[in-house]
Amino acid sequence: MTKVLFGKTSAGAEVNQYTLKNSKGIEVDILSFGATLRSVRVPDVNGKVRDVLLGYDSVAAYENVNGYLGAVIGRNGNRIANAQVTIDDVTYQLEANDNENNLHSGKDGFHAVNWNEVEADDTRLVLSYDSPDGEQGFPGNMKVQVTYTLSEDGELGINYKATTDKKTVANFTNHAYFNLDGQESGSIEEQELEILASYYTPVVDSKAIPTGEIASVSGTPMDFRQMTTIGARINDAFDQLQFTGGYDHNYVLDKADGSLQLAARAKAKESGIQMDVYTTCVGVQLYAGNFVGGQTGKNGVEYENRQGFCLETQYFPNSVNEKNFTQPFLSPDETYDSTTTYRFYV
Question: By C-alpha distance, which of 119, 194, 125, 112 is closest to 158?
Fold first, then answer.
């Protein structure tokens, strides 16, 4: 493991970059700021190393560009309708930062704080953060720990743990944008994807709040039960795709019993790089990077829309307010414990 100073925040805090490595040539860079997954370098089918993750070259970009690239998201990933949540008959007002809704916990989310190092070696990094009562508008003092691991089999694991002293919301994810041909290679629309989900949660309109329905993907462009290119149907005249400018929807995973289960597979023909996603979560948000364009990424690459795709493992969007969904509340006598693993191979 190597550790270097990546830069400083606008407040003067030092941001470290940690690099995990295995003997197969896979390297992973993680920043203390936002506990951010910055790079994943993987040898392709010809042995050429490709960085398959979108990201930035400076702390300032991570602070100022609102793309959440590679960051840990919390206390709540995804959207909360009307930026409000009611817990034990008390209504808490959150930041309305996305069409009157709360998205990814607002500007003070976990993506925007500098995490503390707990443990670091060649294949394991543990970071922690203490979120005070009232931060982001949520109740409770919350202690959070994120552990990154890299195995010899190319498995990049992310484990989240948290405790609280008041009932609160706990729904963490990572907002990694993947491009399996490399972050500089352009559109991801020809890359292939399979999601092990027979149902998804349709949204009401362009504000992307679910209706509460759990709908079948059968016969719709939302069906990824067989390996399909991401762009095959992304521009179809289907209301759900038109609402969100392409895929930005939560899938209800077929196997979601709390154990680590295969959720999705992706592959790129040109590089030969493949990725399997395993999770203990009930859902995964497919976001096709519909609005990621207009940003300058690593090595000066100008990102365009649909140059990276996200598979954000999570509770369903607005599940705090939707009785039909599994709800992400954490009580003082409980420990939040969630794991997602990305396996890279050719």
Answer: 125
Sign, CA dihedral 274-16-34-131, equals: positive
Report how far residue 228's alpha carbon sits from residue 185's, in angstroms, rounded to the nearest whole number.
19
DSSP 240: H
Number of domains in the chain: 1
Contact 170, 74 (CB under 8 A): yes
pLDDT one-digit tens code per residue, 13-69? 999 999 999 999 999 999 999 999 999 999 999 999 999 999 999 999 999 987 899
pLDDT in tens, 258-290: 999 999 999 999 999 999 999 999 999 999 999
Active site residues: 175, 312
CATH of the domain at 275: 2.70.98.10
Q: Any idea which residue has 């690099």 for tokens?
A: 19
Per-residue pLDDT of 294-342, as tens digits, reads: 999 999 999 999 999 999 999 999 999 999 999 999 999 999 999 999 9
Residues 6+ apart with CB under 8 A from 20: 1, 27, 28, 30, 122, 123, 124, 125, 148, 149, 150
* pLDDT tens track for 123-151: 999 999 999 999 999 999 999 999 999 99
Distance between CA atoms of residues 73 and 81, nearest Å: 17
Q: Look-up: residue for tokens 């560009």?
A: 65
Q: Coil, strand or helix: which one is 239?
A: helix
> How far apart, in whole angstroms, are the C-alpha atoms of residue 173 and residue 316?
11
Domain enclosing residue 101, as ranges = 2-345
First and final C-alpha spacing in the chain: 24
Contact 210, 316 (CB under 8 A): yes
User: Can you tell me which residue has the tokens 């690239």?
Assistant: 69
